Amino acid sequence: MSENNIYHRDIMHYESEIWSCADLLIASGIKQSKFPDYMMPFFALVMLEGRMRNEMRDITESEGIDPKEDIDTFVEAFHDRDCGYNDYIVRQGKTLSNICDNDKTFEQDFADYLAGFDAQLKELLGIERGNADSKYLNLDGMIAELRKKGILMQYITKWAQIDLSPYNNSEITTLEEHIKRKWADISAETAGEQYTPEDIISLIAEIVAAKVDVAKNDFVHLYDPTCGGANLLFGVADRLKLDSGYQYVATYGQDFNDALYALAKIESLFRENSEIRYGNTLTQGQFRDKEFDVVVANPPYGIPWKGYEKEVRDDQTDQFKFYPSVSDGQLLFLQHNAHHLHKDSGIVVEVNNGSSLFSGDAGSGESNIRKYLFDQDWVEAIVQMPSDEFFNTGIVTYLWILNKNKSAERKDKVILINASDLWQPLKKNKGSKRKEMNETHRAAIVRALVEFKDCDIAKVYDKWHFYFNKQQIELTEIDAQGRSASETLGYYGEPVKIKDEITYLYGNSDWRWPKDIESGEGERKLILLESYGVTDTFCVLMCKDCIYWIDRAKKSVVKSNYKGNHEYFGAGKIVANISFNKKRMTDTISAKICNDTYKDTEIILYNPDPEQNGAAILAFMQRYITKPYQLLENTVGVEVNFNKEFYVPETVEPVETILTEIVEIDRELANLQNDLGL
Question: What is the model's pTM?
Fold first, then answer.
């Protein structure tokens, strides 16, 4: 591929000219949010034309083939470069600018120009597509809309003034990334769809260069499963080659956005060893049998995957060990990325929001995914980034750094790097992006990762530090004497059936016998209960020989006889069931005294040794739990909380200083009152 270096103006002067094309769109009543739909396909046209003319010049200079002397050989040489083809440009040597010179032949010439593209480029550009075909950049559709508004030739004429042929591929890529970033500013519908800023790309590339286990004269196989327009993928690849000295970087990417995929695919045609494929990465992975040295990703976060949940759960590749909530799929991508590394080597650097660190309770899909990654000892580092780093959201983001070949001294260790204060303000805000990390900031992060020791921005932990026990327990209520009813009655946790004939039940202030309510007997029963010393009528069973009731003040089940004597059994509850006997046409009441139990959970520090972990749980119970309890299921979870690990308490001024300030304020108030004559 051509990388000619010809003297010319900085390519970025075209950025304002490209955006001036939008003036016609505004005048035609097209909403700003739709600008990318109209601009992407035409930018692709001028980009393709510029790069094709660049290749044509390189063929003449490097291979000595002059199209004026031997056009067939020249065309054959161009085809050999496998970067797409347009007969109008290559064989006829014409451009968009030539087409716009004659308004009378414009329509036919432009049709010939579009027809000159090869089949692959027609597909990507959206030319001559059927109703059932993917439109990708949908150029035909945009042309029809512009023609309908009467501005087609004017619009194309403005684009035709942008000549990218003097610039090499790297320079054109730089312009493309700036334009795509602006499109992202105005078209991203949610904060979860992020364009990766250049400083973050540089940081990721520097992390990769510091960690990748590949010789600099060997191929680095680099993959981005959510590549979008491939700014992150190609940005990291270019930095590895230009800044870090890696000679060969093969790039692989996949995306599900039609237009961005098409732009990335077109870009890949002018790169060596680059392959971009289309499809939903989670359900239609295009590199299923491929393993990579490096995976970089900035997947959508906070974006539901419910629409293809069945396909994900039916996946047969074993890439998904657990499933997060259907409201957010970013942890699916983290598993996918780890799956696509080599068995015993390779690194992942993935941008996530905070939910992937701590969302989901122990036993949830999110926690189990984190636990799986920690169990495998693939998590080497997590970096907290500054807020306000992205173009359309101010949220804090994090870099997950996975490494399948951690060095011996890093086994079962994880470093947290708090880079939240490593930033400088932008001279001019770019959407929500108000901060950026300069070279010094990025170097501090990479240095902390490489040195792997505690410092002012980093802490190293045993990985078990992030595990915890979620121990379920069943607690039994007791009274002031530490008694529970079932134990007092000798049943030790089992319910005690009330065998006497039960004649009345009172609960929740309503007598359950309609005949009592109708006859007024219920009110008389209340008076009678009071005479027997029953002071709490919330729950009462009136039996043949006694009364059972709950004294809520003393937290006890009470048995009272009709002489007013009371026997306290301890804390518990009375459970009564009423059933209707169809044969006898009467209601039947059965009742029992039970312990009053409830379930709770305790979060307890985890120990990887099963015996010590069990002992730690028991020690916790003995220290903090005062009621009788029974251990139920224990679930081990994993979460990472930067706020807790890097918490800095607010400094409180000494009491003496505060008192001095109060005295001074009192003095000032007194002086003010004197001045006012109060």
Answer: 0.86
